[in-house]
Amino acid sequence: MTTGQPTAGRMVQPRTGVRQLRAALPIVAPFLTLLVLGIFFSVTTTTFFNPVNLNNILVQVSTLAILATGMTFVLLTGEIDLSIAAMVTLSGVLSAHLFANLGLREPFTTAIPLGVATLLGFISGVASTKFRIPSFMSTLAMSLVASGLAIGISQGRIVFQYSDVLRVLGSGRLFDDPANLRVLTVVAAICLLIGFLVLRYTRFGRFVYMTGANKSAARLAGVDTDAIVIACLTICGFTAGLAGLATVGRLASAQPQVINSFLIDTIGAVVLGGTSLAGGRGGMFQTLAGLLIYGTLRNGLDNIPALQVGAGTFFKEFITGIVLLIALVVNVLLSGRASRDKT
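^ thats the sequence. predicted structure below, dont judge the formating
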């Protein structure tokens, strides 16, 4: 006999659908933002969807993609690395110095800078975990160490001699056609792919998410959270070193001045994609979305005719900041509503 009361199936199904929708919001929101930006710039510019211009977007975000790979690991643990911009500078200067002034050749001019950057990342991780120094402060101190070393090694001078490996990494093309992909873009894609596979299919990746979601619970479950944080900061140091080598080849010089925009742009792109600053939520797929949004925004503003002349040229950074702020607020709000951790 029916009582008119809703059955269990009728009660559970709507809730399940709502939960699935909320769970999908953090992933869908960045790509909706990317779609809106693409439509807007396709209407306001005439060159946005040109194949050469689309390739330029990939080139512009390739160095950031390498940096963002390591930063994603760090942010997923609930930590942060403020030393990556200085690491980029130190790695490039050290490689050029070894080549131009000490006469070393490959593989030493590549392996030594990568090793130094990785070691500094490891030291930051040890300082943050074993000595309980907040990663904000330990990596800030490491940033001063790295920038000081870069200035000391180069004596404040730009170095224009570097190995052919760096030249190919930063400026090399897969084929002679200018529209084809750069070697740097392929390297960036490989970094993102490896990061995705590690986070998605390995025990280490699961431990990274557990550490960021709840360190205490992860410890009770047998996870060595200190080792996970150290490993993630070490990975971030390695990717910063690799990005530094690529930057030398892209700029055709090793410059001792720290490019601070690397830090802001990297964190902005990762968070813009939906990776939480609090840890435990996000991933490489979201980071890819954030990178494409950032590259699309930068490139699209450069192609709008009204911003190429007169006072418009001075408002690009302002417009970029406003759009990024709005996108970040929307994505963070959607992410917060999507899946709050109630453990």
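Residues 99 and 105 are 6 Å apart (CA to CA).
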